[in-house]
Amino acid sequence: MHLLNAKVRHLGTENNLKIMLAIHDYLEEHGIEIKCNTQVDNIKKEKKNYTLELKGGDKITVPYVIAAPGRAGSEWFLDQCKALGLSYVSNQVDIGVRVEVPAQVFKPITDEVYEAKLMYRTKRYGDLVRTFCMNPNGYVVAENTDGIITVNGHSFSDPKRNSGNTNFALLVSNKFTEPFKEPHKYGKHIASLSNMLGGGVLVQRFGDLIKGRRTDASRLKKGWLRPTLSAIPGDLSLVLPKRHLDNIIEMIYALDKIAPGTANADTLLYGVEVKFYSARVALNSKLETALSNLFAIGDGAGITRGLSQASASGVAVAREISKRLNK
Ligand SMILES: Cc1cc2nc3c(=O)[nH]c(=O)nc-3n(C[C@H](O)[C@H](O)[C@H](O)COP(=O)(O)OP(=O)(O)OC[C@H]3O[C@@H](n4cnc5c(N)ncnc54)[C@H](O)[C@@H]3O)c2cc1C
User: Fold this and answer.
1) In the 8-state DSSP scheme, what is residue 57?
2) Would the CB of 310 count as within 6 Å of ligand 1?
3) Which of 143, 196, 211, 226 has a beta carbon 3.0–4.6 Å from 152's, enabling a disulfide?
4) Which ligand 1 atom lies nearest to the CA of residue 299?
5) What residues form DSSP beta bridges with 150?
């Protein structure tokens, strides 16, 4: 198992709103107009400018466009790229579960590194499985991506809001080869199976998964671990492909050696967690598409996978545009 040497800054869920408000106020003070709840239906290229066709029929014509649609808008943006004749590459999709254990199990590790980014190549298939988004004393949450309910996690910086549990994702990366080009759809399809069986996120005790039986409400109640998300007890083996499940089980046993207790029967697995990074539009080093003055940033453009990097990509493009404006 390989521990990545990564610098992590923990902001804390409760600080997000403060940061967003500060950005909003700063921009407003500088005369920037912000239009919320305004969906862009189409990006059209005019001679030198771009026209944004908004839902409801309004249009805005601008010389520069920065597309930052996020994961929820990535499919929409892919369609825009196709219509604009921009080339893109299909990225991978990462599929797995969110694991929840008592915080003590990972304490010796999380006290040292806060978030342990561990990578493991499974013996059975040679696939790469990794931990992602570790939340010491955090909470498991449901996430809605285009109507599909998947699972995620977060934690507060205020110790008074500690949950007593630690959660993290275990993800298996899938890179597809020709002719399949739509990993996004594959991920959504698997997530929709858990939605079909449980109406949302499913939760299963590790012990039940190993015994090949469903976790029901009574088995969940008998466990020592209190779930931080109220999910539907079920059977993840009816949702995840065998290969994913085998990889995840092998990784849990490997983790148990460095964090004893991870493979306890009461460990909770929530499914499914999917990280969509579907299409990455071809960009130059300034994050500009092949069309001049049309930039693409953030998770939806397939170039970032987190808050710091998404924000940094925005700052880089803003600096580039201000340079061009001041020429
Ligand atoms: C529950 C949860 C926990 C997370 N925890 C972490 C974490 O701990 N650390 C971390 O680094 N990252 C975390 N992330 C990921 C992080 O939120 C994203 O990486 C980041 O928000 C990406 O920023 P973005 O600007 O690219 O996209 P977003 O923040 O998704 O913003 C894109 C915006 O564009 C809008 N949009 C899309 N299409 C259109 C359209 N056609 N017209 C108009 N608007 C449109 C969307 O509605 C959205 O508001 C978490 C995500 C979730 C859901």
Assistant:
1) S
2) yes
3) 143
4) 26
5) 143
Taking the domains of the chain in order of start, what are their residue ranges? Answer: 35-89+282-325, 92-275
Structural domain 35-89+282-325, CATH architecture:
3-Layer(bba) Sandwich (3.50)
Q: How many Å apart are CA 69 and CA 77, to the nearest integer?
A: 7
| Alpha-carbon distance values, 217 to 119, 149, 167, 168, 229 (Å) | 33, 20, 21, 23, 14
Task: Check pocket membership of 300 for ligand 1, CB cut-off 6 A.
Answer: yes
User: Looking at ligand 1, which atom is closest to the CA of residue 305?
Assistant: 19
Tens-digit pLDDT profile for residues 270-305: 999 998 765 788 999 999 999 999 999 999 888 888
| C-beta 84 within 6 A of ligand 1 | no
Between the CA of 300 and the centroid of ligand 1 the distance, in Å, is 8
86 lines ligand 1 (CB under 6 A): no
**DSSP string of 159-227, one letter each residue:** GGG--SEEEEEEEEEE---TT---HHHHHHHHHHHHHHHHSS-EEEEHHHHHHT----HHHHHHSSSPP
pLDDT band of residue 89 (cuts 50, 70, 90) is: confident
pLDDT at 90 over 80: no
Specify the residue with its C-alpha closest to ligand 1, atom 14.
Answer: 306
- Dump pLDDT digits (tens) for 215-269: 999 999 999 999 999 999 999 999 999 999 999 999 999 999 999 999 999 999 9
Distance 73 CA to ligand 1 centre (A): 9
For atom 53 of ligand 1, the residue with the nearest CA is: 143
